[in-house]
Amino acid sequence: MTNLNSSFSALADPTRRAILARLAQGEATVMELAEPFKMTQPAISQHLKVLEAAGLVESRIDGTKRPRRLAKRGVEETEQWLATLRQALERNYQRLDDVLAAMQPQKGKKTQ
Amino acid sequence: MNKLTLTTEGDTHIVVTRHFAAPPETVYRAHTEPALIQQWLLGPDGWTMPVCINDAQPGGKMRYEWTNGKGGAFHITGEYVALEPYSRIVHIERMHLPDPTPDNHVETTFQPDGAGTLMTIRMTLPDSKTRAAMLSTGMEHGMEASYVRMEALVNATLLQASAAHNSRL
User: Fold this and answer.
1) What share of chain B is helix, strand, coil (3-state, %, to 5)?
2) A85: domain range?
3) What class does CATH assign to B5-140?
C-alpha cells in the first residue's frame, strides 16, 4: 500500500516533481538524472530515496547500473488526486457557467 | 473575463478567484443547494457526486461523495461556520483519501462585478507544509515547466483511461 501522505510531501518539492517528469519519459540512471539539475549525484539520490519511500519511483538492476523508473502504483494514486483537484477547478467552473446560465430567468437575454 | 486565478498569500493561504456571468444570488445558490451542486462540482469527466449533503446553516454539516464508477471514490466532510446570503460562506472541510487531510478553513465571497459576480475563495491551511502539499498536487497554474510536463503526463493517462472506458461502452 502506497502511503498517500508521503506521496504528497514527496511531490511538494519542485526538484522531485522534475525528476518524476523526466522519468515519465523513460527510465534513467542517477547520473542521467543529475545532469539537467545542476545537482550532485548524492543530492539526487536523496530525492530518489524520498520518491522511492513514497512508492512513486522504483529501481531495477541492469548489470552494474540501477536505472530508476516511475512506479505504476504510486503514479496511479497520485494521478487520481491530481486529476481530482486540478481538473475539478477548471472543469467545475465551466460546468457552473452552464448551470448559472440555465438558472437565469427570462432576463438571460445576453445583456452585458 | 472568466479566467480563474490561483495565488498564495502568506504562509498558509490559497486564494482562488473566478468571475461568473450571473448575479451573486444565483452563484451563491449554486454553491449551497445540493441539486445544483451535484450538477457542477464533479471534477474530471466521468466523475459524479451521488451523495451531496449540504446543511447550509451555521453548524450545519456537509458531506460530498464522488465516484468515477470504476472503483475510484473519495469524499469530503465539513461544517458550516457562517453564512451571509448571498455574499459570504465560511466553512471547514477535509478530504478523506481515506485518511482525512488537515482541516481547510474556507471563506468564499460573492461580490457584484459588472452584471456578474466575482467569487473569491480564501483557503487557510494549518501550516505551510500542508499548503505546499496541496499546491503541488495540482492546484496551481503556471508553475515550473517540469510540473507542466507532469500535468501533460497525467492528462495523457486520463485520456487513455477514458478512451479505454469509452471503448467498453
Assistant:
1) 30, 40, 30
2) 4-103
3) alpha beta
